[in-house]
Amino acid sequence: MVQSHFGLMYANHLYLESSLRCLNMIKIQLDNQPAAFVPGDTIEGSVSWENLRVDTEEIDIRLIWYTTGKGDRDCDIIANQLVASPEIIGKTRFRFVAPKRPYSFSGKLVSLVWAVEVVIIPDHEAEQVEFVVSKSGTEIVLDGG
């Protein structure tokens, strides 16, 4: 499990408190392997889960991008699908369209990563699977030279 890129405002003690309980088991599977897309491609897959708390309000399946590396972290939710009042154990499908930009890239100082992120509400526990979006379907590598 990872902390949601968009849940960073929550205090560490809340995350630790939820970690002490039985962790939700979330599995994300992309239909397309290898996980690489060109703009306009359909990004499809499934999400399955187990051990949700009885008071789980929803599961938020998000198409996101975020930066890693030096400097400020940027991130955005491009699209999402909600599963309201999910059962303790379940499975659902998702479908998004790969956007025109920004492209996936990796550099010495910063990288841009695309992912499908699944967040359990209200716990804010999250899981994600990364993939590439670019005109060529491969990550752009910046060599800095």
Key phrases:
mainly beta; Immunoglobulin-like; eight-stranded mixed beta sheet; three-stranded antiparallel beta sheet; globular
Could you walk me through the main structural features you see in this protein, from its secondary elements to its overall organization?
This protein has one helix at 12-20, and strands at residues 2-3, 25-30, 36-37, 42-50, 58-69, 75-84, 90-97, 105-106, 110-121, 125-133, 140-141. The strands form two sheets. Strands 1, 3, 5, 6, 8, 9, 10 and 11 form an eight-stranded mixed beta sheet that branches. It starts with a strand and ends with a strand. The chain has one domain (2-134): Immunoglobulin-like, CATH 2.60.40. It has one helix and eleven strands. A hairpin with a 3-residue loop joins strand 9 (110-121) and strand 10 (125-133). The chain is mostly beta strands and 145 residues long.
Distance between the termini: 37 Å
How would you classify the quaternary structure?
single chain
- Mass-distribution shape: globular
What is the beta-strand fraction? over 45%
Q: Count of helical segments? A: 1
Structural class: mainly beta
CATH class value = Mainly Beta
Using the CA coordinates, give the radius of gyration: 16 Å
What is the N-to-C succession of helices and strands?
Answer: EHEEEEEEEEEE
Tally of individual domains? 1
